[in-house]
What we know:
By secondary structure, this protein is an alpha/beta fold. Helix content is 40%, strand content 17%. It is built from ten helices and eight strands.
Amino acid sequence: VSTIHLVTCEKVLASVEFNTHLESIRHRISVDASIATPRKSPLRSAVSRFLALRKAINQYRPDHVYVPYADGLVQVSGVSKFFVRCWNRDRTIVEGLLMRGRFAYALGGHLERIRGWISIISLTSAPFDLLHQLDPIALGFIQAHCRSLSRRCWLIPEPVEPLQRMESTVARKQLGIEVEGRYLGCLGWLDVRKGVDLLIRAFAAAQLASSDRLLLMGHIDLEIQNLLRGEFNG
Length: 234
C-alpha cells in the first residue's frame, strides 16, 4: 500500500487553504508538520527549505517527491550539489514548481542580468528531475537559451476549465456590480506584500470619473481590510 507523506509546518495546517483543499482527506495521508518557519531573508529561507527537503527525503526515502513552491530552493540545491549529496536520484524522483522567472525579463542593469544567469546556471545544476514552470515567458526564455535545462522544464497544466467569453454587461450582472463605467480589477490573494495597499492609494489619488471603480476580488488580508474600513471607507 502506498503512503503519501505531507511534510509542512504548523502554520500551513492552520491555513484556510489547507482547510479548503486537504482537511477532508487528512485521515488518508501522513502529516509531518515539523518544519520550522522563522522569518528570515529570502536566501536564508531558501536554504532552510532546501535542508528541510533533504532531511525529509533521507528520512522517508520516498519514490516520488513534489515541491509545490520551489523558488529559491531549487537554486540552492543546484549550488549545494557540488558540496554535499542532496539525495539519491536513482531512488527518488523529485519535481518542483517554479512560480517566477525574473531571469526572463530585461530588468535593471548588468548586475540584474548577471543574477539572472547565475539563477539559470544553478537551475541547470539542480538535482530535480522535472521543473514545472508557471510563467510561459520564463519557459520560453529557457527553451531559447538553455537547451539542456529545457529538457527538464514543462509548463504547468492549467487546472481550471476554459473561460467562456461573454459580454461585459452580462458578466457584471452575474457579479452583482454596477454595469456602467470602467473597472480596474485585482483578483486573488490581496495583501500588502503584493502592493494592494499601494494600488488602493494610487486609485484614490488619481483624477478619475465618478463611474470609474476599483474591483477587488479574492482573499483580502486583514491589513487591507482595515485600510478599506478605515482610511478609504466609502
